[in-house]
Design a protein that fits this description.
It is a single chain. The chain is of the alpha+beta class and 412 residues long. The chain folds into two domains: 241 residues, BirA Bifunctional Protein, domain 2 (2-Layer Sandwich); 86 residues, Rossmann fold (3-Layer(aba) Sandwich). Helix content is 39%, strand content 23%. The strands form three sheets. An eight-stranded mixed β-sheet has the order 1-5-6-11-10-9-7-8, sandwiched between helices. Helix 1 packs antiparallel against helix 5 and helix 5 runs parallel beside helix 9. Bound molecules: adenosine-5'-triphosphate (ATP) and magnesium ion. Adenosine-5'-triphosphate (ATP) binds next to strand 6, strand 10, strand 11 and helix 11. Adenosine-5'-triphosphate binds next to strand 6, strand 10, strand 11 and helix 11.
């Protein structure tokens, strides 16, 4: 080991960033809870098949980004590169189809072997919401409205734009796929190597290419909307009407496709211009065939995931300083008494630490620097008299109170 550094693309999270990331998760859990979502914590690793089958062999995630290894028992396992497949696996494993629709929220680390840069890591964190049940467009509206409310609560209402598209049902998508294959095959010479491969595996992904030559071709490619059948068109109409009624602003972006194979109908991304190429903060879509693909019942689903690091960077979060009291016992007997007194104060909601080193003046200076509201001084004389000195560092006042009255003395 040359340097004691975390592995490339991983980070230690602490201090202000940790507070901001926690605030994102707490806000998410509160708002999703108010929509009836319940917690689901799936394992961080699964059998590789759980991700490989639904995401598709040709997807970037499966072909280049997964952390896959054989464990000591010879099982092929993968660190989760996203939540949806694991959540659907859990839905099947636990027979949750008894109670539909099923609203599940999760959060935690996700792993992808990527080229690290600001806002792009190999271990990052997501909040994730999935709604499993009927394939009705009203659920799409509910899920997107939930995401929008969360973003507004995080102060991102003016910083993100909702890009919305429909990929249609399987029939529409097949028709579109054929049209794309015909179009791109005619221009094969101008396609990037990656996109020539995509032409075989998943031509829709060419629309998502970052290659400049591909982009020029994509500009004139056929549009999905020309290939939607009546059902898909009507589905999308109801989604848009619902979003308008719910007050969720969106832009129809016909070129939006999602990176994984399992999407149908609605696809969406909330994008900001403030994070450069890492501009997508929250994204998702409908995945009607996924649960069946995993061997489960014919239950449809829609879900989304938000990148906690990216949300925490952008969000308008006031991380409140806790109300702090510092105990200053002078001597061993006072130290012993302070254990119980500190707990009395914690019970009132204060954060309490104890400072036992140095003279009283030094300790008071440290307490002020730490932003403490109270310093609670206990010397031998006080101990004998059953009292403490409570200094209110904000008001500059000082009171002598009995042990029993301490909690009352620090009440707001
Ligand atoms: P991108 O186009 O940025 O690679 P993606 O389409 O791969 O994103 P999703 O699979 O939709 O991303 O994941 C949902 C969210 O997770 C993204 O919108 C983003 O906020 C976040 N995210 C994805 N990959 C990373 C990463 N490597 N590091 C940090 N956050 C990420
Ligand atoms: Mg990606």
């Amino acid at each position: 080991m040359s340097k004691l550094q975390p592995a490339r693309g991983t980070r230690d999270i602490y201090g202000d960033e940790a507070r901001r990331m926690n605030a994102v998760v707490e806000t998410f859990r509160t708002i999703a809870g108010s929509y009836g979502f319940e917690d689901l914590a799936t394992p961080i690793f699964e059998f590789t098949e759980v991700f490989k089958r639904p995401l598709g062999e040709a997807s970037d995630v499966v072909s280049k980004e997964m952390y896959t290894f054989e464990d000591r028992g010879g099982e092929e396992v993968t660190l989760r590169p996203e939540f949806t497949a694991g959540v659907c696996r859990a839905f099947i494993s636990n027979g949750m189809q008894q109670n539909l629709p099923c609203r599940l929220m999760s959060h935690g680390p996700v792993f992808r072997y990527e080229r690290p840069q600001k806002g792009r890591y190999r271990q990052f964190h997501q909040i994730n919401a999935e709604l499993l049940g009927p394939d009705a467009p009203e659920f799409d509206v509910e899920m997107i409205a939930l995401a929008w409310r969360l973003l507004v609560k995080l102060g991102l209402g003016d910083k993100v734009v909702l890009n919305l598209n429909t990929l249609g049902d399987v029939e529409s998508r097949m028709a579109y796929r054929d049209a794309l294959v015909a179009y791109f095959s005619a221009h094969k010479g101008q396609l990037s190597e990656d996109s020539v491969r995509r032409l075989e595996t998943n031509p829709l992904r060419i629309l998502d290419s970052k290659d400049e030559g591909d982009k020029a071709l994509v500009a004139n490619a056929p549009m999905m909307s020309e290939f939607l059948n009546d059902h898909s068109r009507e589905f999308f109409r109801v989604v848009k009407a619902g979003l308008e009624a719910a007050g969720v602003p969106f832009e129809h972006n016909e070129r939006l496709v999602r990176g994984l194979d399992y999407y149908t109908h609605t696809a969406f991304e909330f994008i900001t211009t403030e994070l450069g190429a890492q501009g997508t903060v929250l994204a998702g879509g409908r995945y009607d065939g996924l649960i069946e693909k995993l061997g489960g019942p014919a239950v449809a689903g829609i879900g989304w995931a938000g990148g906690i690091e990216r949300l925490a960077m952008l969000a308008d979060i006031q991380t409140a300083q806790p109300r702090l009291a510092v105990m200053l016992p002078m001597g061993e007997a006072a130290t012993l008494k302070c254990y119980a007194l500190a707990d009395d104060l914690r019970d009132t909601g204060l954060t309490v630490t104890t400072d036992r080193s140095g003279n009283l003046g030094k300790r008071l200076t440290r307490a002020s620097k730490a932003g403490a509201r109270f310093a609670v001084i206990l010397g031998d004389n006080e101990l004998e008299a059953g009292v403490v000195l409570v200094k209110d560092l904000e008001r500059g006042t000082q009171d002598q109170v009995t042990f029993d009255a301490l909690s009352v003395a620090v009440a707001e």
